[in-house]
Amino acid sequence: MRRVRSIFVLALLLIIAGTALTLENIGIIVGASKIWPIFLLFLGGGFIVLFLEHRRREVSLIFLGTTISLLGLFFFYFNFTTWAHMATMWPVFLGIAGAGFFAMYISGKAHLFLFLAVALVMLAAVFYLVFGISLHLWPLSLVAFGASLLLADHYYR
Q1: Would you give the DSSP letter of residue 33?
Q2: For 11-40, how does the pLDDT look when each residue is reduced to its tens digit (9 = 90+)?
Q3: pTM assigned to the model
Q4: Which of 24, 43, 76, 101 is the 20 to 30 Å CA partner of 30?
Q5: Would the CA dihedral through 139, 128, 45, 11 be positive or negative?
């Protein structure tokens, strides 16, 4: 069986997207502009497939695949709710980067990636508590920083 060339798949996706958006612009269909994050999901999935197919597993591919796919899901959330939520949910971007580093840790077992993953997810959680819930919770940033120092000390002795 012949493998589908990447350029063919990309060309087909662009033709479908252009057609759908044009049909929405002239009023024949509605809602096509809300599904643009699907391209991020395809792109992220493509990086993950590249990672899985190569014998020499390049962990940067799993990082890109994970973060781009999660960004696609995050943007889908905003498209189907309201983009006004971005004012309080921006720390999720840090958590997405942390998830990418965690995927790298699982794939490569380098402790630095685990440290970065935990630090970014903790930072995202603290920022969300402070900026999304209450400014009175800012001292939790000190707790998170202290915990990350303990984690770093444990792994780098």
Answers
A1: G
A2: 888 888 889 889 999 999 988 888 889 889
A3: 0.79
A4: 43
A5: negative
> Beta-carbon neighbour count of residue 109 at 10 Å?
10
Tell me which H or E stretch contains 53.
helix 38-53
pLDDT in tens, 109-131: 788 898 889 889 988 988 888 88
Q: How far apart are CA 138 and CA 155, in angstroms?
A: 27
Residues 117 and 101: beta-carbon distance below 8 Å: yes
| Amino acid (one-letter) located at 51 | F
**Rounded CA gap, 129 and 107, in Å?**
30
Q: Are 93 and 143 in contact, with CB atoms under 8 Å apart?
A: no
Q: What is the 3-state secondary structure (H, E, C) of 70-120?
A: HHHHHHHHHHHCCHHHHHHHCCHHHHHHHHHHHHHHHHHCCHHHHHHHHHH
pLDDT-derived band at 74 (thresholds 50, 70, 90) equals very high
Q: Give how far Cα 137 sits from Cα of 15, 38, 140, 144, Å.
A: 49, 36, 6, 12
Dist. CA 31–CA 80, nearest whole Å = 10
Dihedral sign computed on CA atoms, order 69, 74, 75, 77: positive
